[in-house]
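Bit of a strange request maybe. I'm writing a small parser for structure token strings and I need a real example to test against, not something I typed by hand. Could someone generate the tokens for this chain?
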Amino acid sequence: MAGLQMHRVVKQKVSVLVDTEAPAGVGDALVTDREIHRQVWHLAWPSVTAMLLQSFNSLMDTFFVGHLPEGAQALAATGVGGGVVFLLVSLAMGVTVGTTALVARFTGAQDPAQAARATGQSLSLAALLALLCGVPAYCWREQIVSLLLDPGRNPQASRLCVAFLGAALLATLPLFVWNVLQAAFRGVGDARTPMRVTGAAISVHVIGDWLLIYGHWGLPRMGVVGAGVALALSWCVGMFLFGVAAWRHVVLREAFRWRHWRPDVAWYGRILRIGVPASVQALVRTVSMMLFTGMLARTVEGAAAVAALQIGIRAEGIAFMPGFGYGIAASALVGQALGARDADRAERAAQAAMWQALCVMCLMATLFFAGAWPIARAFSADPQVIGLGVAYLRINALCEPFLAPGMVLTSALQGAGETVKPTLITVVTMVFLRLPLASLLMFTWNLQAVGAWWAMTVTTVAGGLMTLGLFRTGQWKRVRV
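Reply from user aminoacidic:
Good idea to test on real output. This should exercise your parser:
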């Protein structure tokens, strides 16, 4: 009876998110397109909201840290430390991308037992990877920081970064588990639960920043270390809330049964075969940004350039986070449609998500271009940091229209299980184009930090065009997971 009830619930959800009937005529095709746009919006707005909350969280983090007495040094420390954290998130993507692709396929095929199996195996694999990655990162955090921030030129920023990571990395396991459960919810077509959990975790983070960085309500003034503690607490809260929500879900609660959790090498291979290329893609992005940040630290502006980069990325996040949100919707809908054997529906869903994201991101880019000065001024009182932050926002606003196809269609391809070719595009643009071009503009042409901003813009445009070309080949429709 329980299995039959689970099957009916999943079937009902799939009937809402994936229409497997082919259009009968021109009029029906128009209705179908309209329905697809509605489905994209239904999944995208909670994801966009969650991503915007993440951007707000980053902005508040920057705001609190930026007003510490250490100023640009503290911003540089948490920025580089955040890069190390995102490196771990990139490793977790080796599991999470596979989770979403498999759970979405099984949801579209109306096979809840396999969806639960995929989730359970993903959880046990994530726990294993968290230990294998988190323990070495914690033990060697000083060596990692020394590679990213030259201790000779930026001794204070290096010391603060090590302290920040010493607190944040203690919660690596909750971070990995949180990401897998979030991916599973999106795979079954539930975007609202991740939005609610993200909102709660961010509330903990922001309040924790206020309390621990400055020492309010009788708590010790911990500075940058307080930022790390608040971040770790938010991951723990997020993991707990996702666990409660999954236990109440008719499909995902089955994932907690030992028969689904028990390590299975064949399933691990299936998950990683999809997820590892996506993880490599994220790792390439993260490592290249770390190298990019290291190059910035060696410009004439030094720590001020690194601080401006952190302000710019966090502020710009409000413009490009909708791309992540629409990408999440595209990934789920493409996976579900392919599971229901409707490749045409999958393509239309991805295109609808891309066009909606394009409209939102162009509007946000315009606002950030016009308001670059007050935005940068809100996060730093250092005139040099403000000037570089304004230049970052205005130059990078020019490439926002190309971020929409780059971000949304990459996620759509991942939802289909096509993760190798998008990774190759990332390697080409981030490693073979961005870093050499940045070096040329910054040091050979002596544009310093402004040259770095132009290198980011040019390579972002290239990546968007290449991803659009890959999607249009249609080869992703034939990928087997």
